[in-house]
Amino acid sequence: MATYGQAVRRGLPRVAGGDAWPPAGDAPDGIGAVATAVAPGGAAEPDAGAVSSATASAPDTSGAVDAVAAAPQAVAPDAAVAPDAAVAAGGVPSADASAAAPAAPRAVRRGLPRTPGGEPWPPASVVAAAAVAPAAGSVATAGSVAVEPAAASAAPAPEVAEAVPSVAAHAAVGATSSHPVRRGLPRVPGGDPWPPEDFTPVVVAAQEQAPAVPAEDAAVAASVPAASVSAPVVPAKAGPDVSVPLPFPRTVWEGASARRRPVAEPEPARIGPFTKLQWAGVVIVGGGGLLYAAAMVVFAVQWLLSTPWGVGFLETYPGEYHLPEGAPVGFPAWLGWQHFFNVFLMVLIIRTGLQVRTEKRPTVFWSPKNNNRRKISLGLWFHQSLDILWLVNGAVFVVLLFVTGQWMRIVPTSWEVFPNAISAALQYASLDWPTENGWVNYNALQQLAYFTTVFIAAPLAAITGVRMSGIWPKHATGLNKAYPVEWARAVHFPVMLYFVLFIFVHVVLVFATGALRNLNHMYAAQGSTDPNEYMTNWTGFWIFAVSMLVIAGAWVAARPLVLAPIARLFGKVSGR
């Protein structure tokens, strides 16, 4: 009897709530085995029932000869074959009673149609052809043939082709399946589930058994070489044109990562933390905010000074107090020259200080003549050289102040300086500026500003600058611990910002409170004791203009091409 070589695994049901597929007891096409018995003499006698079962499961026996001829190594040349062994329906006697036939391929399952409203794919003819081709191998695997060498060499090849009956008449035909088909999603939006309700699948089944092949003919066929037996060629049916896309609505799109993204635009150039457009917005918004705040301050101060308290406060403290007896009047010529040198050096010191602070990789270096190992950037050397000149000019200025008595003009000599300074500040804020004559006396606010600049800010800048320079002893452990360099850096930069603010306010007030008169005081040493007298000559203005040209020329010339020859007079200049 026929037995299955392997158990059929049952899967999910084809319909909701149905039984597992395939149904219990159904055997797949082509799966079977041939049970054989080995005779005591060594001859293989096939089991009639097993051979018949194997034959019944094979739809085509024409491939048996080809399978045997294509695998001559499976034939034992020294084995005996029973001459009366009969093979039923293409069965072949086996030389090994324990050899079982391998499982044949399963039937081809037809799927969805390739065109709307068409037949299931693949066509029924392709399914039948696919079922015939593997059936040829199923007969050959039903058993192995043992042939003697003499018998194998005696059989001619043409007779084999005639001995094997044709099975073209026994091709598989379509039959309707008794199992319902599970319907899936519609093929078009809003349509019915696919396939339609009246669709019935077609399965392949063998109509009748193939005729039996005599044992003698099978033995002769086994002795023919593989090259002399040609397998029947099943004409392949041309399939549909797969180069044309299916005429169905598109339901799948590529993901976001597969799309081509535009190239990111380059980052705009930045000036500090903002771009040019952002800086413009900051200036517009910030300037508008400052103007609004200034207008509010002016209105508030004007209201305050119009009150009785404000009127009495201005009468008591007009903004200045009387200087001590013997205080000089006017400005000597040396004071004008000192003022020019101070402005010249301060502008270049601020420029070089900002350059040193922002410079990351210097291109030119300077080292002293007696110490080539100590190198600093050329910009730092120029900054420190300007500092030395500024300190010398400041020392001369302070000495002349105390020698000539000019110190009484900028050093407070009474506690009245503070309420008068408040009064002067309120008058400036109300835009009703105080009437003052710098040729004779500064107002209290000016006096405090000059005193802070000369005797507080300047010494702080000098002390912190020396601590960060090469003049400071590096190996003085106790001194460095008492005065850390971090303190000097934390103070030096804010002091420089104070100088910038002082210069800005000082220049604005000089031009806003009488430019010609104030310039004659500072640069031409010309003035009058009458505060209402307005000097109309332009001497001080032209001296000031020339001094500005000199400062601008020094600003442009402060570059390595000009500084390197000067620096070589005091040390060595190199590019690394």
Summarize the structure.
Helix content is 46%, strand content 5%. By secondary structure, the chain is mostly helical.
Overall morphology: elongated
State the helical fraction.
40-55%
Structural class of the helices, strands and pairings? Answer: mainly alpha
Q: Count the beta strands.
A: 9
Q: What can be said about the biggest beta sheet?
A: 3 strands, antiparallel
Strand order of the largest sheet: 8-7-9
- How many whole angstroms does the radius of gyration measure? 57 Å
The total of helices stands at 18
Please report which band the strand proportion falls in: under 5%, 5-15%, 15-25%, 25-35%, 35-45% or over 45%: under 5%
N to C succession of SSEs = EEHHHHHEEHEEHHHEEHHHHHHHHHE
Average residue-wise pLDDT = 73
Low-confidence stretches: 1-5, 30-102, 134-175, 205-211, 218-231
For the terminal residues, how far apart are their CA atoms?
101 Å
Question: In words, what does this structure look like?
Answer:
With 576 residues, the protein is mainly α. The protein has helices spanning 48-57, 63-70, 124-140, 149-154, 157-163, 215-223, 276-306, 308-316, 333-358, 378-404, 407-410, 417-429, 444-468, 477-482, 485-512, 515-524, 539-557, 560-568, and strands at 36-38, 44-46, 173-176, 202-205, 270-271, 274-275, 365-368, 376-377, 571-574. Strands 8-7-9 form a three-stranded antiparallel β-sheet. The chain has a two-stranded antiparallel sheet with strand order 1-2. It has a two-stranded antiparallel sheet with strand order 3-4. A hairpin with a 2-residue loop joins strand 5 and strand 6. Helix 2 packs across helix 3, helix 9 packs across helix 16 (515-524) and helix 9 runs parallel beside helix 17. The longest helix has 31 residues, at 276-306. 23% of the residues are buried. The model is unreliable at 1-5, 30-102, 134-175, 205-211 and 218-231 (pLDDT under 50).
